[in-house]
């Protein structure tokens, strides 16, 4: 039975344990969600104070039944004696939150602008690397230094998922993703700033050798032949030679050469195993593998962020440094940005932001057919005690109207807000 088919009960019949639906817009009531199980008398009084005569009632999700209608008159008398404030404090707080969400949206626009600018910088670096190497390496080093300094100085980091093809710089998103995610891990393990700089440069240029690989191999949608795989694997060596000639430090060179090496020895090009792989290369290998699962050349094979993490941790754990993989999962959370989730109250949403300090409590964009998409509700799950994330969903499992509303990302890209923790950082 859909919510619209549920029967109505008088607000005077409400009892603790009843599961109810409130037919008001989200900003017209003080509750976090339009549907919930009543937990105390204060909630009943609040519902009555909204001026509603009736609410919808879901008996299947309730622990108690409505009061007999004979009790209505007495309840009416009790209600008339209650001192109901002109505006419930929680509703006033929600109105304040709505204003702060506007600030959050402005902050999101700022972050996406910074993201595009960074991608453009990477584009310019890639374009001019060989024609003006000294200048472009200095430009790249400055960019990495700025990112590393910001990340190190921020008390908490909020990881934002970016929209699809913002600014037309999608070709450079992979390099940016791998760099960002690698530096995220580095920050968590308290890597020294000098090592972070080497890590950032190696991550940013980890695929530079691909410029020596023919496009017919790079762009091929079907599985590569063995000969093509062997040729493609050469990009690691080509890249290492390029960055060595550009004067990169040995650690950054090792990253470029070893970013496809896996902890169990099943990687390439040298099939290095365990401690034989440079520690910084192990970080980039994790970030690179994850992003390739989320954003493969053939998007039909793409895994959701949640699936990608689950695959790496549950099925491929032996391929990665176990301690670093744990850090990676902890930082991204069980539900990384871009994940579609269903809540315990039946609601649907997409993970928009996670706070690395609270990875299990992301901020969600919620689907609500009664609210315009551009004004979609943002809920910080760290503030909710009655509702939790029940499961992750594939975008294909969503009804079309929900899919169009949440707009799950065909390609997932990340950027850090170093201004502070999540919604609070943006004033929400």
Verbal overview:
With 428 residues, the chain is an alpha+beta fold. It has two domains: 3-73, no CATH class; 92-425, Hypothetical protein af1432 (Orthogonal Bundle). The protein is 44% helix and 12% strand. Strands 5, 6, 7, 8, 9, 10 and 11 form a seven-stranded antiparallel beta sheet that branches. It has a four-stranded antiparallel beta sheet with strand order 1-4-2-3, with no helix packed on it. Residues 77-86 and 419-428 have low confidence and may be disordered.
Task: Tell me the layout of helices and strands.
Layout: E1 8-10, E2 19-21, E3 35-37, H1 41-49, E4 54-57, H2 72-81, H3 89-128, H4 133-153, E5 158-161, H5 173-188, H6 193-204, H7 215-218, H8 226-245, H9 250-258, H10 279-294, H11 305-315, H12 322-332, E6 340-343, E7 348-355, E8 358-366, E9 378-380, E10 389-393, H13 400-406, E11 414-417, H14 422-425
Antiparallel strand pairs: 1-4, 2-3, 2-4, 5-7, 5-11, 6-7, 6-10, 7-8, 8-9
Could you write a compact summary of the structure shown?
The chain has 428 residues and is α+β, with helices and mostly antiparallel strands. It is built from 14 helices and 11 strands.
What is the overall shape?
elongated
Q: Based on the structure given, which CATH architecture of the largest domain is correct?
A: Orthogonal Bundle
Helix-strand category: alpha+beta
Radius of gyration: 26 Å
- Supply the CATH superfamily name of the largest domain: Hypothetical protein af1432
CATH topology of the largest domain: Hypothetical protein af1432
Assess the beta-strand content as a share of residues: 5-15%
Mean residue pLDDT: 83
SS summary, helix count: 14
Approximate helicity band: 40-55%
Detail the poorly predicted runs.
77-86, 419-428
Distance between the termini: 35 Å
Number of structurally distinct domains: 2
| Beta strand count | 11
Element order: H for helix, E for strand: EEEHEHHHEHHHHHHHHEEEEEHEH
Main pleated-sheet profile: 7 strands, antiparallel
CATH top level assignment of the largest domain: Mainly Alpha
